[in-house]
Design goal:
By secondary structure, this protein is an all-alpha fold. It has one domain: Ferritin, core subunit, four-helix bundle (Ferritin, Up-down Bundle), CATH 1.20.1260.10. It has six helices and no strands. The radius of gyration is 21 Å and the shape is elongated. It starts with 5 loop residues before the first helix and ends with a helix. 30% of the residues are buried. The C terminus is likely disordered.
């Protein structure tokens, strides 16, 4: 039955988020296991613990609203998680896979940021200050996770993925450097950094 009031819409959207977070609790360990970089694995493991806390917060909200969290499946999260599974199955464990995993994880974070922002606003309009506070806490965590993933991508993962591609190009051309940087950088890039 479609929501006819803002409060009904709030409950429907919260059910969607509850489904999304529970799907994510199951998916994050697989993403952590698939990560090549220990920093990315740790980021996924940390977010798993945060996500469990977010599920607890949603359960508290449903309790406060005297409503059930059950009854809705988040098809958006199901699709986002399916994309993550494809990345894992299509790429060998490498920094390129890690870059793709970060991309998939940030799609999830952006979806959650949008969804939590909407329900927080609904709760504000309805004068549900306690609910607003709990939703804002989760919204802040999602934003921080997104920022951490960006920092990890820009400072480590994407750089390694780029270097990995250059190493493959050198091997494909049959060119081998006899001396030079051992971290996968080309001589040109190493000179540019000096």
């Amino acid at each position: 039955m479609p929501a006819e009031t803002l409060q009904e819409l709030l409950v429907e959207e919260l059910k969607d988020l509850y489904s999304a977070e529970n799907q994510l609790v199951k998916a994050l360990p697989k993403m952590a296991k698939a990560a090549a970089a220990p920093e990315l694995r740790e980021a996924f493991e940390n977010h798993l613990e945060e996500t469990k806390g977010q599920v607890d917060r949603l359960e508290q909200i449903f309790n406060d609203l005297d409503a059930s969290p059950k009854g809705k499946k988040c098809v958006a999260m199901e699709g986002l998680i399916e994309e993550g599974k494809e990345i894992i199955s299509e790429h060998d464990q490498s920094s390129v896979r890690d870059a793709a995993l970060i991309c998939a994880a940030q799609k999830v974070e952006h979806y959650e940021i949008a969804a939590y922002g909407c329900v927080r606003t609904f709760a504000q309009l309805l004068g549900m200050d306690d609910v607003v506070e709990l939703l804002q806490e989760t919204l802040d965590e999602e934003g921080n996770t997104d920022k951490k993933l960006t920092e990890l991508a820009e400072s480590i993962i994407n750089v390694e993925a780029e270097n990995e591609g250059e190493e493959d190009e050198g091997e494909n051309d049959g060119e081998e450097e006899k001396s030079g940087p051992s971290n996968g950088m080309t001589k040109k890039k190493a000179m540019a950094r000096r």
